Amino acid sequence: EHGNFQGRSYECMSDCADMSSYLSRCHSCRVESGCFMVYDRPNYMGNQYFMRRGEYSDYMSMMGWSGGIRSCRMIPMYRGSYRMRIYERENFGGQMYELMDDCDSIMDRYRMSDCMSCHVMDGHWLMYEQPHYRGRMMYMRPGEYRSFREMGYGGTRFMSMRRIMDMC
């Protein structure tokens, strides 16, 4: 519940949409195996942060969150190919580029200033709001994402993408 692994604890081995039924707050975390996305709101909403194996005794100040972890999603191990199409506009409109590897800047690589929708065909990806894998992030698993704005990311421009590989 508290920083530095103090207070009550809860062991989570799969997705958890609302941690409030187990802990009143979550301000430190230890990932013993695998990778997780943690969220500052219930139901996998709000700001997201990627966590791999390790100890996070005071991640609150690192991320600038005040409310702690409210939900988490386990990222499954994946060893296949990676493929994602990014689109300049919502509903798969405008310029389209297909990625099969990491892209540290869509502006530098494609001269693309905005990415507002995507289709993840293969693999699991992290999208970042700034080039070089910085800023707010969003976890993308296989599926169609027609509008980042409708997903609650209005005003956020995703400028770099990275595959989640064997780093878990």
TrEMBL record:
Keywords: Eye lens protein, Repeat. InterPro entries: Beta/Gamma-Crystallin, Beta/gamma_crystallin, G_crystallin-like. One of its GO terms (molecular function) is structural constituent of eye lens. It comes from the Eukaryota. The keyword Repeat applies. Coiled coil: none annotated. SMART domains: XTALbg. Signal peptide: none annotated. Residues 34-76, 123-165 form the Beta/gamma crystallin 'Greek key' domain. GO terms for biological process: lens development in camera-type eye; visual perception. Belongs to the beta/gamma-crystallin family. Crystallins are the dominant structural components of the vertebrate eye lens. This is Gamma-crystallin M3-like.
